[in-house]
Please model this.
Amino acid sequence: DSGVTQTPKHLITATGQRVTLRCSPRSGDLSVYWYQQSLDQGLQFLIQYYNGEERAKGNILERFSAQQFPDLHSELNLSSLELGDSALYFCASAPSSGGVETQYFGPGTRLLVL
Amino acid sequence: AQSVTQLGSHVSVSEGALVLLRCNYSSSVPPYLFWYVQYPNQGLQLLLKYTSAATLVKGINGFEAEFKKSETSFHLTKPSAHMSDAAEYFCDVVRSSASKIIFGSGTRLSIRP
Model:
């Protein structure tokens, strides 16, 4: 158990809909990273938040957004969903902001868009 | 541009045999390098990382990797495979900040009894 929790574990929705994925980091970690893992794109870094502020952006679509709240949990919002958004979404947490730190991954949220 | 190549999407070895999973990177400056393991239906777990200290890095579960700048490689090895090593392994390259996190395509390791 990494100490990172993600909810929900599974999500099934329809094209065009909007969903919110939630991540609670390990106690004391200030950074949250979001990743997408799909069969065709592999594992891709989406975005990083550090202590409530956006710190780094990867291959995140404009339809996707994230935020980190004062209690340090983070939410990833996916809107106007397409079939190709079906994937496993992971969050990871780390103590501070550098990308070279050890990241602790949550179990993921499996999203299926029908 | 930075990239990561993992040679072999699937590697199969016998129990007790040497495990060698290959990772090559391209980067204009030496990056930080990581190996992660993903067991079925789980998130990723860090095996080891190279951050410009010793070139031979020892990780968990008996794995180690050697950073070879001249070959731009960071191959993962384990002298003797166990059945419990069956998983997917990802090589990851980071250049100074999280905005440059690049994962390889992954290598699925199977262990034959």
Q: What stands out?
A: Chain B touches chain A at residues 32, 36, 41-46, 49, 51, 90, 94, 96-106 (CB under 8 Å).
